[in-house]
């Protein structure tokens, strides 16, 4: 992954030491609540609060209910105006009533999708980690082996059922591909769940027993009928909506008539080849592109040759 491409991946930025050893501290929640220097990050579902200047909004430990699920996020590695290096951060996963007690204005709670590009590297790392783990905790309250309630241990990074079975967070690997043809046009598809004018790269989850390269070839063929070769890895970005790691690739269409591209008709309703001129002329008008927080946007701009001045 080149430095230039990495700079286009807002959700991959990070200035945080996850400090895994500290998660094993006995009675960790009490230790963290007793430390006035700790910053507490409220999380409502997959939504967060921001200060007027755009930074994440933190609260005091007293605002966090004792029964809230909390997650030790780690320590800052660099000084910042609101927290020196070494400051510890904790996410507090709140239900509706606890969240309303902190901030009753529903519009103040915002999805990370909407402002990920505006955060500092430290705050971006905190937000992605917190949202991803909040999503995991929301669906892992019970052991899949015994059906028993699973308690939160290890600073929020493990759940354990009464029989001692431990549950660890998982990340779903998904490939996303910038496919180009012999004329260096890019292949974009429109998903059935989107507006008709919205297009993005083809993507899909890696199946068990499958290499990333095979997943690239399979997903592109299944969704568009295009055969590709020479998949080349570009970089990765977490996508905690709810628990994906997007692995970016580019690949070349195998020689042949590119007009044979056809959507699968179920997930993808339309696929088209676009030139750079077409993208420049239509973007933001009759061509809605993926948002700036996505790796899809970064790969499209990598192919295009620079930033596209549209949302």
From TrEMBL:
It comes from the Bacteria. InterPro entries: NAD-cap_RNA_hydrolase_NudC (IPR050241), NADH_PPase-like_N (IPR015375), NudC-like_C (IPR049734), Nudix_hydrolase (IPR020476), NUDIX_hydrolase-like_dom_sf (IPR015797), NUDIX_hydrolase_CS (IPR020084), NUDIX_hydrolase_dom (IPR000086). The lineage of its organism: Bacteria, Bacillati, Actinomycetota, Actinomycetes, Micrococcales. It holds the Pfam family NUDIX-like. The keyword NAD applies. Its EC number is 3.6.1.22. GO terms for molecular function: hydrolase activity. It comes from Curtobacterium subtropicum. Keywords: Hydrolase, Magnesium, Metal-binding, NAD. This is NAD(+) diphosphatase. Belongs to the Nudix hydrolase family. NudC subfamily. It catalyses: a 5'-end NAD(+)-phospho-ribonucleoside in mRNA + H2O = a 5'-end phospho-adenosine-phospho-ribonucleoside in mRNA + beta-nicotinamide D-ribonucleotide + 2 H(+). Residues 169-301 form the Nudix hydrolase domain. Its cofactor is Zn(2+); Mg(2+).
């Amino acid at each position: 992954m080149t430095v230039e491409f990495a700079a286009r991946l807002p959700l991959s930025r990070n200035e945080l030491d996850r400090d895994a050893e500290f998660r094993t501290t006995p009675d960790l929640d009490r230790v963290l609540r007793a430390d006035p220097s700790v910053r507490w990050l409220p999380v409502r579902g997959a939504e967060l609060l921001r200060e007027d200047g755009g930074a994440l909004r933190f609260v005091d430990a007293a605002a966090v209910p004792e029964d809230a699920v909390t997650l030790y996020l780690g320590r800052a590695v660099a000084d910042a105006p609101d927290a020196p290096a070494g400051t510890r951060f904790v996410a507090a996963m709140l239900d509706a009533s606890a969240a309303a007690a902190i901030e009753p204005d529903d519009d103040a709670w915002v999805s990370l999708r909407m402002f990920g590009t505006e955060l500092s590297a430290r705050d971006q790392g905190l937000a992605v980690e917190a949202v991803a783990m909040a999503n995991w905790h929301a669906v892992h309250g019970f052991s899949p082996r015994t059906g028993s309630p699973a308690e939160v241990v290890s600073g929020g990074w493990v759940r354990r059922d009464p029989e001692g079975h431990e549950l660890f967070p998982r990340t779903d690997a998904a490939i996303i591909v910038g496919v180009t043809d012999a004329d260096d046009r890019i292949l974009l598809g429109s998903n059935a769940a989107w507006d008709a004018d919205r297009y993005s790269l083809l993507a899909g989850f890696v199946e068990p027993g499958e290499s990333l390269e095979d997943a690239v070839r399979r997903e592109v063929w299944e969704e568009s009928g295009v055969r590709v070769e020479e998949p080349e890895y570009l970089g990765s970005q977490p996508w905690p909506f709810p628990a994906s790691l997007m692995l970016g690739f580019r690949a070349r269409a195998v020689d042949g008539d590119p007009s044979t591209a056809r959507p699968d008709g179920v997930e993808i309703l339309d696929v088209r080849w676009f030139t750079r001129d077409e993208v420049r002329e239509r973007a933001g008008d009759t061509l809605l592109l993926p948002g700036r927080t996505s790796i899809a946007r970064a790969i499209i701009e990598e192919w295009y040759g620079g930033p596209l001045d549209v949302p």
